[in-house]
Amino acid sequence: MKKLTLIRHAKSDWHSEAATDFDRPLNNRGQKAAPLMGQRLADRGCTPDLIISSPAKRARQTAEKIAEQIDYPETDIEYREAIYEASLRTLVQLVLNLDEKLDDVILVGHNPGFSELGQWLNLEANDWLPTCGLLELELAVDDWTQISEECADLLLYDYPKKIT
């Protein structure tokens, strides 16, 4: 069994001075939501083998704040350009190519790709992942190359405004 957690970046600042969408930072709400969701993961005993994030500023900041809460070394976060504005096909390929030694992986990125990947893996997954929302999925495979449509059980769907 493999575990995959998809986390959409926290709320970004549309009023920032950022020159591009890629450089947009988190807003105040996002700055609070990311550590909150990280703490919720920590409370569940989350210990990923790897965190992979989009290199966009808002995703990087989200990944770093979550990593801090779950005691994952920030320097071990991998940033992959392919996640930024990724299609479902690109995200499926990313997962298919994960190292077989990894059993528990967190991906941090963007919609609509993350919502589409969640639904591809499990039809019960919410069709739109809110900002800083997460899907924790258990994949009924022994190797990442075995993933297929509807191969996952939904372990957790959580987001900052959800009452826990």
Molecular structure report:
- This protein has helices at residues 28-43, 57-69, 88-96, 113-121; strands spanning 2-8, 50-53, 78-79, 104-109, 134-139, 152-158.
- The longest helix has 16 residues, at 28-43.
- The mean pLDDT is 96.
- Strands 3-2-4-1-5-6 form a six-stranded mixed sheet, with helices on both faces.
- By secondary structure, the protein is an alpha/beta fold.
- The chain starts with a strand and ends in a 6-residue tail after the last strand.
Relevant CATH superfamily: Phosphoglycerate mutase-like
Total domains, how many? 1
Structural class: alpha/beta
**Poorly predicted runs:** none
First and last CA, distance: 26 Å
**N-to-C order of helices and strands:** EHEHEHEHEE
**CATH level 1 class label:** Alpha Beta
The Rg value, from CA coordinates, equals 14 Å
Instruction: Give the spatial strand order of the biggest sheet.
Output: 3-2-4-1-5-6
CATH topology: Rossmann fold
Entry summary:
29% of the residues lie in helices and 20% in strands. The chain has 164 residues and is α/β, with parallel strands linked by helices.
Can you give keywords for this protein?
single chain; 164 residues; alpha/beta; 4 helices; 6 strands
Secondary structure blueprint with pairings:
Blueprint: E1 2-8, H1 28-43, E2 50-53, H2 57-69, E3 78-79, H3 88-96, E4 104-109, H4 113-121, E5 134-139, E6 152-158
Parallel strand pairs: 1-4, 2-3, 2-4
Antiparallel strand pairs: 1-5, 5-6
Helix pairs in contact: 1-2
